[in-house]
């Protein structure tokens, strides 16, 4: 069997997806039987990509998989747990730093649990959860400038504390004054 024909048969399913220039033979005097030249090339069919070629279809079906969604939602929490354990282990000689890491981790886990409960709660129960979420976020916002301000100069500490206060004010406005959930 002719090698050129064998190669052509292998690429036959892909020819409609290639540009017409690839299908043209640059040397029409040496064309193989059945090879389309510029003069004899049939008009190409309109390009309709196959559903399997659409990258969003594969991604959507992957994200619809419950195990993948479970892993994507739990992997960051697992990483946070791991880094918190490592930080606690490294701070074993300093009890205040270890207490900071453990308390920040516990408050953050409680915060995530309350946000998940808020999303699944009926509207009449969301008001109480909104208050709890605000209190937890305020504690976290105060906790980090408190720890950072001990390592900075007064000017930088004032900037960090003012940014924390502005953040708390914005969260309060969005949660309680604006009214949109």
From TrEMBL:
The alphabetized UniProt keywords are: Membrane, Transmembrane, Transmembrane helix
List all Low complexity biased stretches: 31-42
* Coiled-coil regions listed: none
Specify the superkingdom.
Eukaryota
Pfam families with a match to the protein in the record: DUF6490 (PF20100)
Q: Where are the transmembrane segments?
A: 70-89, 95-115, 127-146, 152-176
Spans annotated as Disordered: 29-51
Protein name according to UniProt: Uncharacterized protein
Look up and give the organism this protein is from.
Answer: Spirodela intermedia
* Lineage, broadest ranks: Eukaryota, Viridiplantae, Streptophyta, Embryophyta, Tracheophyta
């Amino acid at each position: 069997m002719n090698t050129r024909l064998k190669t052509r048969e292998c690429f036959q399913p892909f020819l409609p997806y290639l540009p017409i220039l690839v299908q043209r033979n640059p040397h029409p005097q040496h064309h193989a039987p059945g090879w389309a030249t510029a003069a004899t090339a049939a008009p190409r069919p309109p390009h309709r990509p196959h559903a399997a070629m659409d990258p969003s279809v594969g991604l959507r079906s992957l994200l619809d998989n419950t195990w993948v969604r479970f892993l994507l939602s739990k992997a960051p929490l697992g990483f946070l747990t791991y880094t918190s354990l490592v930080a606690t282990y490294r701070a074993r000689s300093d009890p205040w730093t270890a207490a900071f890491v453990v308390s920040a981790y516990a408050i953050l886990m409680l915060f995530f649990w309350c946000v998940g409960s808020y999303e699944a709660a009926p509207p009449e129960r969301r008001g109480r959860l909104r208050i709890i979420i605000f209190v937890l976020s305020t504690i976290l916002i105060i906790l980090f400038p408190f720890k950072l301000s001990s390592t900075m100069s007064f000017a930088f500490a004032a900037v960090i504390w003012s940014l924390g206060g502005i953040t708390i004010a914005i969260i309060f406005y969005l949660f309680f004054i604006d009214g949109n959930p």
